[in-house]
Amino acid sequence: MSHQPLIEARPLPAKKRRSMSWNSREGRSVIYQIVAIASVVALGWLLVRNTLRNMRERGIQSGYDFMGQPFGFDISETVIPYDVMSTYWTAFSIGLLNTLKVAVIGIVLATILGTLIGIGRFSTNFLVRKLCYGYVEFFRNVPIYLQLLIWYIVFTEILPSFEEAWQVGHVYLSKNGLAFPWPVWKLGQTLALIGLVLGVIASAMYSRKAQRHFDLTGQQQPVLWVSLALIVGLAVAGWLAGGAPSGWDLPVKGDFQIENGAVFSPEFTALLLGLVLYTASFIAEIVRSGIASVSLGQHEAAASLGLNKGHSMRLVVLPQALRVIIPPLTSQYLNLTKNSSLAVAVGYPELVSIANTTLNQTGRAIEALSIVMLVYLALSLITSALMNWFNASAAIQER
């Protein structure tokens, strides 16, 4: 048996040495980046130097030392304890919490309403389809500032006074705002809230496990009902562990206003309605375009498997449409949060309103505006990070 000589392996090509000369592309790229960074730093240094020099010449004080001084101004809506002797730190914290309050509730409501309107654009019912179309065209073409003013006028001028408030059960709507029952908060409610959060985490973990099982075996496990059982079951278990408190604080008509219960002020309700209705019109278009981006063949393939319209939408169309929906949806969440700064128009004490009051009282314009800019930048980055994580988890994994 003869042995044929082995063919010698071809040597690896020599690694190219990075050239930093002007004649190489890499060298020019590095030089351009250094020039760009140096230009930005120089521009920033000139801006800061000129600003500080002008402030010294005009005798304007600078610094954040005022943040520990008393705010000295009443705030109509507070989430945490506050009085006029509280510090500017407390006032800005209240402004931030009020901004988060309207942003979080607004994002949830706008997502639900926008999704329903977007799916309604594909309804086979002519009236439903045209109503959804009319809603989108009306609300997205009217400026948000004008909408806020209209809703504020409705709540302060058109609605009846509290003596003649519109009443549905224990819910009252009047010029005093929206009053509704609220549970008497005890240990049971706290444990129920903790159970609710744990239920959401447990359902997310179960959904991932069910997805892995489907990828390996092709067998679909029930997800919706198990997730609901985990969320509701853990919340009810926490409520029972806390003694099952069942007391409710019911609103009643007093001598001068609606007393007891929880109240959404006219300013907050007008701002929330305006933001939700305006943002939902854009979300509806995003949902409609995402569903429309799924090819007709996918609908026909789902129908050929015997899936009804609901299952076809949930199992075939929406998972593919999410790839198109989530990125622009993130922009709408950011827009809603930033548009909450228009609350100044209706007198709701959110972050920008607190900053304006601070500016008028102390004259520290740069400091007050820098706090607002940092807060909105942080909120935008956090929202983007969460949505990017959700986008990555919802992406279709090709095998």
Give an overview of the whole structure.
The strands form 3 sheets. This protein has a 4-stranded antiparallel beta sheet. Helix 2 packs antiparallel against helix 10. It contains 11 helices and 8 strands. It is globular. Helix content is 64%, strand content 6%. Strand 2 and strand 3 form a beta hairpin.
Summarize this structure briefly.
This protein is mostly helical and 399 residues long. It has eleven helices and eight strands.
Strand order of the largest sheet: 1-2-3-8
Helix-residue proportion: 55-70%
Radius of gyration: 29 Å
Distance between the termini: 46 Å
Structural class based on helices, strands and sheet pairing: mainly alpha
Strand content: 5-15%
The unreliable regions are none
Mean pLDDT across all residues, rounded? 86
Profile the largest sheet: 4 strands, antiparallel
Following the backbone from N to C, one meets helices and strands in this order, namely HHHHEEEEHHEEEEHHHHH
Q: Which overall shape is indicated by the principal axes computed on the Cα atoms?
A: globular
Counting DSSP H or I runs of 4 or more residues, the number of helices is 11
Tell me the number of strands.
8
Oligomer: single chain
